Amino acid sequence: MGPSAARKPLLHGIETSLRYLSRWNRLDGLAVFITFNKPRLPLWLIFRDADKCEQCPEDEWPNLENTACVKRPVDFLSFYNILGLLLTSLIVILFVFSIIILVIFIKHRETPIVKANNRNLSYTIIISLMLCFLCSLLFIGNPDKLPCLLQNIIFNLVFAVALSSILAKTITVVFAFNVTKPNIRFQIFFRKMTQVFCCVGEFSICMCWIQFYPPYPDRDSVSKPGILILHCNVGSHAIFYLALGYNSFLALLCFLVAYFAKKLPDRFNEAHHIAFSMLVFCSVWISFIPVYISTKGKYMMAVQVFAILSSSGGLLGFIFFPKCLIIIFRPKANVKQSLYVRKALQQFKIQHLREELGYSDDIQLSSDAKEELLWWLQHVQEWNGKTMFNSNPDRVL
């Protein structure tokens, strides 16, 4: 008995509608909606005989004759399609680029430009960003239980480590220039506690996420008729956005501290680069949310991978790339003997500003400040356009 004869007993109480899929540009199935005075629920049916219809499983679809179920084509961000291949290539390029920067910093670890901004924190930030690049690979490929569970957890934790290290580095610079008698042990303790406290906050959120609403692999058969979308369900969108919001809060805090520290008088003060990189980071993730909500399937994963790569690459490029240019192409600007500056005027200014005197107040210059002012009058032309640093710094940040 053909399909046309099988449809006749089903006319009462059943509304039939034909759907065309642009994917194949031809009639591909019969969508049958059971009404019975209830909301319309789509059931993809096949006809076994004149009196019986059967529903296809979720991962299958009726054939052209509506007599058998066939496997639906699946859609996910694969390593083998063009989009997945491009993102994988970008991940490899950024990972190799971060390795090169790390090697440069380790090889020139005794130079002033590396030591001036706390090389241990720099190593931590670079390694964290390398792990951010690698964890993007978890978002590509067939969604399984373990990758779905780990992809967002690892990404948020590693990003929290990177942002907390940047925040600790910036706070250390502020302490060094705004404390009359700095305590080196207290600065180290405060820097470590800042890192630990920021990481513990993100770690607590992720542990609650795993314990109560763990992510899991899911299938979507509604968004695209005839196509089965494989994706990772985040478990709880509230915790997902809470974890992202916590990292965004750390980035905003880094920006505020860096914006305050960028006016401090240090030729190797990287607060300008940190502030700009935090602006890029916040811009990326603010634009990520509406795009992520409005996309489905592999494009949703691709948007998240691109956001991770662009924000991590922004931090790596804006903070460390300028230093690499100085190390490689301007080695004379990275030698202690050529990085000399006298600080009597600077210390004299800071001391009187702490006494609540303004820039317009008249003060009596000290003998050291007068001597340095005369030195600058004699040598300012030869230092024009050069980078300067104290050959014997009072402290290394």
Describe this structure in words.
- With 397 residues, the protein is of the alpha+beta class.
- It folds into three domains: 3-72, no CATH class; 82-334, Rhopdopsin 7-helix transmembrane proteins; 339-397, no CATH class.
- The chain has eleven helices and nine strands.
- The protein has helices at 3-7, 82-107, 112-115, 119-135, 145-178, 184-212, 237-261, 271-294, 298-329, 344-354, 367-379; strands at residues 14-21, 26-34, 41-49, 52-55, 60-62, 69-71, 74-75, 216-220, 228-233.
- The strands form three sheets. It has a four-stranded antiparallel β-sheet. A three-stranded mixed β-sheet has the order 7-9-8.
- A hairpin with a 4-residue loop joins β1 (14-21) and β2.
- α2 (82-107) runs antiparallel to α4 (119-135).
- It is elongated and about 105 Å long.
- It starts with a helix and ends in an 18-residue tail after the last helix.
- Residues 1-50 and 337-341 have low confidence and may be disordered.
CATH topology annotation of the largest domain:
Rhopdopsin 7-helix transmembrane proteins
* Count of individual domains: 3
Strand order within the widest beta sheet: 1-2-3-4
Put simply, the count of helices is: 11
Please identify which CATH superfamily of the largest domain we are dealing with.
Rhodopsin 7-helix transmembrane proteins
**N-to-C span:** 85 Å
Portion in strands: 5-15%
